[in-house]
Amino acid sequence: METSLWDRSADELLTRTASADPTPGGGSVAALTGALGTGLVLMALAVTARRRDLEDAQRSRLADLAARGEALLTRVRAGADQDVADFEALMAAYGRPRDDDEQRAARSAAIRTATVAATRSPLGLAEALADVVDLAAQAEGAVHAGIRSDALAGGDVARGAAWAAIRTADVNLAALERAGADETTELVTRRDAVRRRLETPGTHDPHQQQHQDQRKQGDPA
């Protein structure tokens, strides 16, 4: 890949996406839009954190959510260029010579390796975006009412991007299933798990789970 997608202007990205060029494809666009959705959640948290009337507990909660959001943004951003790299590796594998049995075997192995990578990456992206959806749901109760819609909009964008990433993974996963690849079961399990999370939002809150566990153990809340 010559240049990171993030180094291109918005107009260049749109023009290239709407062209006959195969990249950026669905996975990259999912990462690009998902990163913007994550940014909306972070903006709502940052604007709220500037208020002077916050209690210490509120400020601490906002900082915790923002730290998680920044970590997620790093993961989601990386997905844009990774999708292009995965596509190029897969095309290179398909372009390998197949003049004899040895070459054909090497080509098949390269295709499988590249296909597995091109499945893992969008699944990882979808998982990160599902975390963003959860983060937006948690931010809803922490941010100022005047900017709450931006946090929720960010979650909506992330949800759509996550489904787009799953579609990208599904294409490659189908190829692995047809080939009987050993990794298929693990990847299907991951795909189904993130699907369930997206269908039941707000159920994967590590902060709330820790709080509940402490209560069960009799620790102070």
TrEMBL record:
One of its GO terms (molecular function) is catalytic activity. Residues 10-177 form the Cyclodeaminase/cyclohydrolase domain. Keywords: Membrane, Transmembrane, Transmembrane helix. InterPro entries: Cyclodeamin/CycHdrlase, Formintransfe-cycloase-like_sf. Residues 188-221 have a biased composition (Basic and acidic residues). The chain crosses the membrane at residues 29-49. The keyword Transmembrane helix applies. Residues 181-221 are annotated as: Disordered. Pfam families: FTCD_C. The keyword Membrane applies. This is Formimidoyltetrahydrofolate cyclodeaminase. It comes from Lapillicoccus jejuensis.
